[in-house]
Design a protein that fits this description.
Oligomer: single chain
Shape: globular
Distance between the termini: 10 Å
Number of domains: 1
Length: 158
């Protein structure tokens, strides 16, 4: 039942204001598991951050939400949310096309005051730090070290 809850419940942003933000771009579904290096749907705050799937129960609370992260003008299929800095964040992608069905996840540790972008394509997730250069105003995407996240021991993988 907890796996179903992760689809029907929105990701809960940190209660205390934070300056760390994440833009999630996907044409499928992405869920977040805050405070963990593995997937556990029971953890507080866990839930859907961006759902482009057609499932009738998929939570779409954050779809198209904008917080003003640089470089987001004209970006489609995105959602911007606040994330807790200095603690692990697991990004979980679920998707399918006519030939494949995938479940892929990574975790990283957001820095305080930083903006990030998670992009997903079939069976992959890439994390980038978004940097706006003060002198030129140019926005760059720097790859962020992330590690593959697995299902926590004794937890259903869905």
């Amino acid at each position: 039942m907890d796996a179903l809850k992760s689809f029907t419940t929105a990701y809960h942003e940190p209660q205390n204001p934070t300056t760390s933000r994440l833009r999630v771009i996907t044409d499928q579904m992405v869920r977040l598991v805050p405070g963990s290096t593995c997937i556990n749907w029971d953890l507080p705050g866990t839930g859907m951050v961006n759902s482009r799937g057609t499932g009738p129960l998929n939570d779409q609370t954050h779809n198209d939400k904008r917080l003003g992260i640089a470089g987001g003008e004209g970006v489609k299929n995105s959602a911007e949310v606040y994330v807790q800095p200095d603690t692990p964040l697991t990004v979980v992608y679920s998707g399918a096309d006519r030939r494949h069905q995938c479940f892929y996840s990574v975790y990283f540790v957001p820095e305080a005051g930083a903006d990030y972008e998670a992009t997903s394509e079939l069976c992959t997730v890439a994390i980038y730090k978004i940097v706006k250069h003060g002198t030129t105003g140019e926005v760059s995407h720097e790859p962020v070290k992330s590690n593959q996240a697995k299902v926590c021991p004794s937890v259903s993988p869905l």
